[in-house]
Write a structure and sequence with these properties.
Oligomer: single chain
Number of helices: 8
Radius of gyration: 16 Å
Helix content: 40-55%
Structural class: alpha+beta
Order of helices and strands: HHHHHEEHHEH
Strand order of the largest sheet: 2-1-3
Strand content: 5-15%
Distance between the termini: 19 Å
Number of strands: 3
């Protein structure tokens, strides 16, 4: 299910109009219509706002489950809620990759020592969201670097990234 289809489904089941969402979130009805028909996608802040608005996890709005089928790649973020630190990565299957991160953390074997330490110390309250949907791996790598820089995730006080780009990304992910 695409993000637009998910928004439409939530609106239909909860009987909420584009006008109501736009007014409540302070955005234009045109933006919502464009998200629903696939002309554009909301940025990470709006995805989080929509998830909060509909009282669902951000991951339910993530199109990652469809990625392996349609050949797209995604740049995603994992934010540790207690510390506010963020990890940025890229993959073709967001849901699978997030599950791998969580399994590594639960087993005490995450490659980011700081992320593992925060998980062990403060617990596993994380939020996940797609930052960018790319149509080619090159775009995903480029945008991954962009968001790592924009969010300053290489700074240990702000993030968990230690290198330039994901080491584990491949077109088969």
């Amino acid at each position: 299910m695409t993000l637009g289809e998910k928004i439409s489904e939530l609106q239909r089941t909860r009987q909420i109009t584009n006008y109501r969402i736009a007014k409540d979130l302070g955005i234009s009805q045109t933006s919502i219509a464009n998200w629903k028909n696939g002309k554009s996608e909301p940025n990470a802040l709006y995805v989080r706002a929509l998830a909060d608005y509909f009282n669902i996890p951000v991951s339910e709005l993530s199109p990652g489950a469809d990625a392996a089928e349609d050949g797209k790649a995604f740049v995603y973020a994992i934010e540790h809620v207690p510390t506010g630190r963020i990890y940025v990565g890229c993959t073709k299957d967001v849901n699978r990759r997030i599950a791998e991160h969580m399994k590594q953390l639960q087993n005490g074997k995450h490659p980011s020592k700081q992320m593992q330490s925060d998980f062990n110390t403060y617990g596993g309250e994380y939020v996940y969201y797609v930052l960018f949907r790319a149509y080619a791996a090159y775009d995903a790598f480029s945008m991954e670097r962009h968001f790592m820089s924009l969010l300053n995730t290489r700074d240990p006080q702000k993030g968990y990234n230690s290198g330039d780009v994901s080491k584990d990304f491949s077109l088969s992910n």
